[in-house]
Amino acid sequence: MPELPEVEALAGFLRQHAVGAVVGRVDIAALSVLKTFDPPITALQGRDVTGAARFGKHLALDCDGLWLVTHLSRAGWMRWLDNPSPTPPKPGKGPLALRVHFFTPEGLTPAFDLTEAGTKKRLAVWVVNDPQEVPGIARLGPDAMAVTEAEFAEILGGTSARIKNSIVDQSLIAGIGNAYSDEILHTARLSPFATSSRLTPEQISTLYAVMRSTLADAIERSEGQDAARLKGEKRSGMRVHARTGLPCPVCGDVVREVSFAERSFQYCATCQTGGKPLADRRMSKLLK
């Protein structure tokens, strides 16, 4: 799933390549992605692109006061096309969900695609007059790159949830997902199962600093990358996430995994839990 650094980079890419252009035809290949009907998506046509922004993990394109907002969910992505096909895509064919065409001042006709891999379609698109009309944006807590340390401490002190759950809860702190939470907790040497409200002031201060530095480093790596390379850049910077069975780059212990529902997370027992492996319900069931 694209998280704060990748969505910030995509917004920057759109500011560089789409701002100043005029929206042309909008092709919908998967009607299910469109979550609003008024204003209609055709209202975007002919509007100047005046900005692009990130709200948590939502990507938004400002079309002269009318906003095209998307949440890429787990398997969605944005792809830029310098020379898109003039033929409208056939609905329901392949991963393409939506294509937005542009006319640039230089006379070029690029486009961007919103795509989604897999069979579970969760990518969502809204056309709104104000991004706050999008329910997910309206519920966002303070952004992970804007929250102060005092606000961060107050947020964690007010919840008894596990710290892994707290920092991915978008209503508490916006922008962090499964991957970067693994990296942040590993660097901060905290167990994903630690209770948020029981962290010491020193642990909270360390966690806050690590959160900011981890995300800032990822944003810096992502800046200037085209959309096609961002996924690879994200993977290359990971130390524990999606590295189950590989050695921890800090201590050499094996990176372990805990699975639940449709998700999993990775951690190092030596660095984060005093050498004690966390319970994995999936493995427990297999051993019975």
TrEMBL record:
<dbReference type="GO" id="GO:0034039">
    <property type="term" value="F:8-oxo-7,8-dihydroguanine DNA N-glycosylase activity"/>
</dbReference>
<protein>
    <submittedName>
        <fullName>Putative DNA glycosylase</fullName>
        <ecNumber>3.2.2.-</ecNumber>
    </submittedName>
</protein>
<comment type="similarity">
    <text>Belongs to the FPG family.</text>
</comment>
<dbReference type="InterPro" id="IPR035937">
    <property type="entry name" value="FPG_N"/>
</dbReference>
<keyword id="KW-0378">Hydrolase</keyword>
<keyword id="KW-0456">Lyase</keyword>
<keyword id="KW-0863">Zinc-finger</keyword>
<dbReference type="GO" id="GO:0140078">
    <property type="term" value="F:class I DNA-(apurinic or apyrimidinic site) endonuclease activity"/>
</dbReference>
<dbReference type="InterPro" id="IPR010979">
    <property type="entry name" value="Ribosomal_uS13-like_H2TH"/>
</dbReference>
<dbReference type="InterPro" id="IPR012319">
    <property type="entry name" value="FPG_cat"/>
</dbReference>
<dbReference type="GO" id="GO:0003684">
    <property type="term" value="F:damaged DNA binding"/>
</dbReference>
<keyword id="KW-0479">Metal-binding</keyword>
<keyword id="KW-0238">DNA-binding</keyword>
<feature type="domain" description="Formamidopyrimidine-DNA glycosylase catalytic">
    <location>
        <begin position="2"/>
        <end position="118"/>
    </location>
</feature>
<dbReference type="InterPro" id="IPR015887">
    <property type="entry name" value="DNA_glyclase_Znf_dom_DNA_BS"/>
</dbReference>
<dbReference type="Pfam" id="PF01149">
    <property type="entry name" value="Fapy_DNA_glyco"/>
</dbReference>
<keyword id="KW-0234">DNA repair</keyword>
<dbReference type="GO" id="GO:0008270">
    <property type="term" value="F:zinc ion binding"/>
</dbReference>
<keyword id="KW-0326">Glycosidase</keyword>
<dbReference type="Pfam" id="PF06827">
    <property type="entry name" value="zf-FPG_IleRS"/>
</dbReference>
<dbReference type="Pfam" id="PF06831">
    <property type="entry name" value="H2TH"/>
</dbReference>
<keyword id="KW-0511">Multifunctional enzyme</keyword>
<dbReference type="InterPro" id="IPR010663">
    <property type="entry name" value="Znf_FPG/IleRS"/>
</dbReference>
<keyword id="KW-0227">DNA damage</keyword>
<dbReference type="InterPro" id="IPR000214">
    <property type="entry name" value="Znf_DNA_glyclase/AP_lyase"/>
</dbReference>
<dbReference type="InterPro" id="IPR015886">
    <property type="entry name" value="H2TH_FPG"/>
</dbReference>
<feature type="domain" description="FPG-type">
    <location>
        <begin position="239"/>
        <end position="273"/>
    </location>
</feature>
<keyword id="KW-0862">Zinc</keyword>
<dbReference type="GO" id="GO:0006284">
    <property type="term" value="P:base-excision repair"/>
</dbReference>
